Prior knowledge:
By secondary structure, this protein is mainly beta.
Amino acid sequence: MLEVPYQDSLQVEPAAGWEFTDCAAVxxxxxxSTAKVGDEAVRVGECAKDGxxxxxxxxxxxxxxxxxxxxxxxxxxxxxxDYQVQxxxxxxxxxxxxxxxxxxxxxxxxxxxxxxDLGITCxxxxxxxxxxxxxxxxxxASAVASSTHLVISPADARPGTVTVRFxxxxxxxxxGADSTLTAxxxxxxxxxxxxxxxxxxxxxxxxxxxxxxxLLAPEPAERITVDACGxxxxxxxxxxxxxxxxxxxxxxxxAGGDLLLDQFSYTVSTxxxxxxxxxxxxxxxxxxxxxxxxxxxxAPGAAVQTAYVPPAPPAQQGPATDRLRQVKRLLKDVGA
Length: 336
């Protein structure tokens, strides 16, 4: 079995006393096997009688393990060596095992949690991370996933906590282990405060000014203070207590269609103790989400492919990564 490391290369060498005899045949075989997905998934790099390199620049869910026949020779004996080639799967979509929201919901009212606040990472979520709710406590509480938010509803109007178990999947469609989100619901203050969950269009790759005081009700803007902002995954955010936020993308946006460019939450308060949290979902002008409202959520327990593309996990580099890959290959070779 030849497993090409994720977005990396694999050197294939003949056994002692043998040599490879037909690099053209190797290239043809790999090209034929990857024709439907493109040579970025697997291609042959350098090739000579003492070995060849398989290179993967992009993971492909569609590329299944394929047979690679390599002509070889030793002391006048010629035969074909058969290999099975597959791509190393990327790190799966994941969130911290235990997630606690840093802001409360209002007792008796649904709480919309932007996916950016769940700490999700994903290597291959080009089509948006998928999420499904696998459990909710206490009895009577509920949680459903929409394309942009996890919507949590408490069992009643009393203060308390709700825990939500959820699982994530990347473009492969395979769901991983559950994570648990704990959300606190506080009593509604004497002066109710509402914060909007807004969809905002990014003007090209330029800075985006956002005045969240325009997204609040029913308090006058001058009485509002921004207490905190969530962390965007694809840009930088200046969070000001005045409510005048400034978002700058890390790079020119490439997403469109049904995908978000970025997302973050904001929490506001009033002098009397009013507290509310809203969110900003950043989209491109061509996005189908540009003229839509935040959805209420899908069916309970249903798997939902979201519009949120999480950041990739921190890259692992250097000798430690190479040693880890060597250990993983050894374990596979011995059947562990």
